[in-house]
Design a protein that fits this description.
The protein contains 4 helices and 5 strands, in the order H-H-E-H-H-E-E-E-E. By secondary structure, the protein is α+β, with helices and mostly antiparallel strands. It folds into 2 domains: about 70 residues; about 80 residues, Beta-lactamase Inhibitory Protein, Chain:B, domain 1, CATH 3.30.1450. Helix 1 packs antiparallel against helix 2. The protein is elongated and about 80 Å long.
């Protein structure tokens, strides 16, 4: 089930990224078909219109390629993957402070009933290794039991 969900999420992400290309292909085919079919034009004008369509395509490619490269180049480290799993599965909810410290080690910081841990990084290799750092937050209730967790980008 988990594998199917990951495949669906990836395919949805690819669909979102490829959407401008899909729309562009459909529109280009319709435009070229209508021009060739309905309007009798001379060969020179047809080539000119075809060249405009090609220029539009190149523009779409250059506009959307940074999004594509950012998507395929972002790589989380092992710490981020594990922390994200724990957050998404809500597997820490119900544990005590002692169990959390035993499981996650020494906290990075503390603010009242919130413990902060380093949640790893996501590195974008296309942009020269630019890294985003993340923080894993563990929230405790009045009985020192975990009530929720969250993960966010470090400022």
């Amino acid at each position: 089930m988990g594998v199917i969900l990951v495949v669906l999420m990836l395919s949805y992400s690819f669909l979102v990224i490829l959407l401008p290309y899909i729309v562009g292909i459909i529109l280009s085919a319709i435009i070229i078909f209508l021009i060739k079919r309905k309007i009798v034009i001379e060969e020179r004008k047809y080539r000119k219109i075809k060249n405009v369509v090609i220029v539009i395509w190149v523009g779409i490619f250059f506009i959307s390629s940074p999004l594509w490269f950012n998507y395929i180049s972002a790589r989380p480290d092992d710490t981020y993957i594990e922390m994200k799993k724990m957050n998404d599965n809500k597997s820490l909810i119900g544990l005590s402070k002692e169990q959390i410290e035993e499981l996650l080690g020494e906290k990075t910081d503390k603010d009242g009933d919130v413990y902060f841990y380093s949640a790893g990084t996501i590195t974008n290799h296309i942009t020269g290794g630019h890294r985003k750092f993340y923080i894993f937050e563990v929230y405790f209730d009045e009985n020192d039991i975990v009530k929720s967790t969250s993960i966010r980008e470090s400022p």
